[in-house]
Specification:
Number of domains: 3
Radius of gyration: 30 Å
Structural class: alpha+beta
Strand content: 25-35%
Number of strands: 25
Distance between the termini: 102 Å
Number of helices: 11
GO molecular function, one term: single-stranded DNA 3'-5' DNA exonuclease activity
GO biological process, one term: resolution of meiotic recombination intermediates
Oligomer: single chain
Length: about 500
């Protein structure tokens, strides 16, 4: 009998024993695939029975027919291996919250929820129940709530109903817990502050924006099953991090929009892996999606600005402010970087307190970084724009790379002033708009004189003279501009 010769070829890559055995699906996935979908018939209120409408913060333990509505702030699915046909196969453990508090819900399911009623973070849910129990001391340590409600999908007097989002109910129950009338939240801190010192503070909160969404991955578990994992990149104005979602929670990020969706995380778990900041949702974590808070729109606007290419050669807004009346009139305002930050986050509350309704005044700052000689060595002392391109050079009239025409409107590179600081914060000079008068007042010469007199002695003199110099900046800020516009510089 003829035999087929073996074909000796290139060795297959990653030819391990695991490649011949596909990963076994998890118990939860097998349960969901085997069970039929939930019946189309919806739960209805028993005839002649009245449920009292309450807020979550008003709920007390004990018997009583109550109903309340909130948004899902945390959840996880746990499979149950009961041999009884009528027993629950899935336990949906979730936390519901409104502006008054949070409560734990145990929703026992004999069959999976329909696709139109899948649970996700931020989903609206209405609960009807007849009894509220208090959490044990052991359970309360790993939960943000004090009370718990247990509901089965076969119960005729209790139910959990998930509501579809619409334009009418979008803003319902998005106010964070504990926000006062002025819109302040206790223990709300930047991500960098949380990483450095705040992770040991109970009840800490972070407000971050979605930067990127990773692919869903299947991770093998030690017991032989698998679990799904998804990494979500998040950031604020201080630093970036990674939010890891596990299990059934991975699908909740499908509707999140990059640079638009804002998350308010209460008591997240922190893990530092090398240089990566990894956040996870623990049992006591509460997640509020797109909260109604003054910092939400500010962070979303900040994220949108990062998507746009920064225009370092933006024209100075001479006609945007009444400079002389605001700076040299009877009412002269002195600001700090902290005041500007507070005004930018809550313009409506402070606009009537400023003369002429404009944020124009004086800043007393210290130059903590100067880059004259370093920019000259990199041929970037001056900058200009033409045909949509930014040109950096040390020449006064360089040619455009697109149209070969000379660029006449060259100006000092704003990055000459590397950083300026006051007692409340610091700002880079490249993120500010400087007028010609401001440059002449600061450097003591115009653009032509700056480009011509560039000997090593002069450049070294600039760096030594301006470092740690205290100056007064006549500035203006407007949300449409998005940058601090420096009109003039006066020695302190």
């Amino acid at each position: 009998m003829p035999t087929t010769p073996l074909k000796m070829g290139r060795k297959q890559q990653n030819s391990t024993i695991q490649a011949f055995f596909p990963p076994a699906p998890s118990k939860k996935r097998r349960i969901i695939e085997d069970l039929p979908a939930s019946p189309a018939k919806s739960w209805s209120l028993p005839a002649g029975i009245v449920y009292k409408q309450v807020k979550i913060g008003q709920i007390q333990p004990g018997p009583g027919r109550i109903t309340f509505t909130g948004r899902v702030a945390n959840y996880r699915e746990v499979e149950k291996n009961s041999k009884l046909a009528t027993a629950a196969k899935i336990l949906l453990r979730m936390a519901l919250m409104d502006e008054t508090g949070s409560i734990d819900i145990k929703f026992w399911l004999t069959r999976p929820l329909a696709a139109t009623h899948r649970v996700k973070l931020g989903a609206l849910a209405t609960v009807h129940t007849t009894f509220v129990s208090a959490l044990s001391s052991e359970e309360s340590e790993s939960s943000a709530a004090k009370f718990m409600i247990s509901v089965s999908d076969t119960d005729k007097s209790a139910n959990v109903e998930f509501l579809a989002d619409s334009d009418e109910n979008w803003a319902d129950f998005r106010v964070p817990i504990g926000m006062d009338e002025e819109g302040k939240l206790e223990k709300l801190m930047p991500l960098k502050c949380f990483v450095e010192t705040g992770s040991d503070t109970p009840g800490h909160r972070l407000m971050v924006c979605v930067k990127w969404k990773g692919a869903k991955k299947t991770i093998p578990k030690k017991d032989g099953g698998t679990v799904e994992k998804r990494d979500i990149g998040v950031f604020d104005d201080s630093m970036e991090g990674t939010l890891t979602l596990w299990g059934s929670m991975v699908s909740t990020a499908d509707t999140w929009e990059i640079s638009k969706t804002v998350l308010l995380l209460a008591s997240p778990s922190l893990k530092l892996w090398r240089r990566d900041v990894q956040l996870t949702c623990g049992p006591a974590t509460l997640v509020c999606v797109d909260p109604i808070h003054r910092d939400t729109q500010w962070l979303r606007t900040y994220a949108q600005k990062l998507l746009r290419k920064p225009d370092i050669c933006a024209p100075f807004p001479y006609d945007e402010f009444d400079w002389k009346a605001a700076l040299y009139g009877e009412q002269r305002m002195k600001f700090t970087f902290g005041d500007i930050d507070k005004y930018s986050r809550n313009i409506d509350a402070y606009v009537n307190q400023l003369p002429a309704g404009q944020c124009v005044g004086w800043l007393n700052v210290v130059i903590t970084e100067i880059n004259v000689s370093s920019l000259y060595r990199r041929n970037m002392l001056l900058c200009g724009s033409c045909c949509g391109f930014t040109v950096f050079t040390n020449e006064l009239s360089p040619g455009c790379r697109k149209c070969d025409q000379p660029i006449e409107s060259m100006r000092p590179n704003p990055n000459i002033v590397g950083r300026i600081s006051d007692e409340t914060g610091c700002v880079s000079g490249g993120s500010m708009i400087w007028s010609e008068q401001a440059w002449e007042s600061l450097l003591g010469r115009n653009v032509k004189e700056l480009s011509e007199n560039t000997s090593p002695e002069v450049l070294r003199y600039f760096d030594e003279f301006f470092l740690f110099m205290r100056i007064n900046l006549a500035f203006g800020w407007d949300p449409e501009i998005g940058k601090i516009a420096v009109w003039d510089v006066v020695p302190s």
